[in-house]
UniProtKB/TrEMBL annotation:
It comes from Microbacterium aoyamense. The lineage of its organism: Bacteria, Bacillati, Actinomycetota, Actinomycetes, Micrococcales. Gene3D superfamilies: 3.90.1200.10. Residues 109-172 form the Aminoglycoside phosphotransferase domain. This is Aminoglycoside phosphotransferase family protein. InterPro entries: Aminoglycoside_PTrfase, Kinase-like_dom_sf. Pfam families: APH (PF01636).
Length: 242
């Protein structure tokens, strides 16, 4: 079948072949497939299914039809925000059994406390919407054990949103949306806890992005890193107002 390159493959190319997705495999892939199989067993239909490997050694995943949330008219929908918080909680809860398995090799570093397996990029550009509903989440390649708040805080940064390059935000009530997201997740983290964790997450992302800029020479990575630095400072300033 023809291969159609999909957007978002910043690390390696990602292609669609029929109703499957093919992407470069690595030493981390068995751990990611173990996670996806665990999510399937837990009845989480919004995650891709691991379907093995093709004759080129690439992993095969099921394709989730729809639009990336960032490109959807439902981007700032309250219903999607709540659905995203609930989906993240379901994924985290299903992953607990793998979080303490030291035999699994992950692409990203483990972070303490290793409460769950974090997606590590659970954001609007990896969420899939169809008919204005959240139907999926993709890109589990960088998953690794870590604290629940690591994922939830970054989701808040992207979907509340607090990211400074968010488009067409209008007059969203960010305080109310943050409260709704935390309530949907179902653990009563405080506003200060979420904002502080989001700022820490951006520090980590800034360092990672600068490393990628050095490796690739891409100017846009430098621009993104600068934004993460500014946004982390803004989030920390917000915590003093709570």
């Amino acid at each position: 079948m023809d291969e159609i390159e999909l957007s978002g493959g910043n690390m390696q190319p990602v292609v669609r072949v029929g109703e499957t997705v093919r992407r470069v495999a690595g030493e981390w892939t068995p751990a990611v497939h173990a996670l996806l199989e665990r999510l399937e067993s837990a009845g989480i239909a919004e995650a891709p299914r691991a379907l093995g490997f093709d004759d080129r050694g690439r992993e095969i995943l099921s394709y989730i039809a729809g639009d990336v949330l960032e490109d959807s008219s439902a981007l700032w929908s309250d219903e999607v925000l709540i659905a995203a918080g609930r989906l993240l909680r379901r994924i985290h809860d299903a992953s607990v059994v793998l979080a303490g398995d030291d035999t699994l090799v992950w692409r990203s570093a483990r972070r303490a406390p290793a409460q769950v397996v974090c997606h590590n990029d659970f954001a609007t550009y990896n969420l899939i919407a169809r008919d204005d509903r959240l139907v999926g989440v993709i890109d589990f390649d960088f998953a690794s054990p870590g604290p629940r708040l690591w994922d939830l805080a970054y989701l808040a940064y992207r979907i509340v949103p607090f990211v400074s390059d968010a488009q067409d935000v209008g007059d969203l009530d960010r305080g109310a949306r943050l409260s709704a997201l935390v309530e949907a997740y179902g653990i009563p983290f405080t506003r200060s806890e979420v904002l502080t964790a989001a700022a820490d997450r951006l520090d980590d992302l800034r360092a990672f992005t600068l490393d990628r800029a050095a490796e690739t020479g891409r100017v846009d990575f430098i621009e993104h890193a600068e934004m993460y630095g500014r946004d982390a400072a803004a989030l920390r300033a917000m915590t003093t107002m709570t």
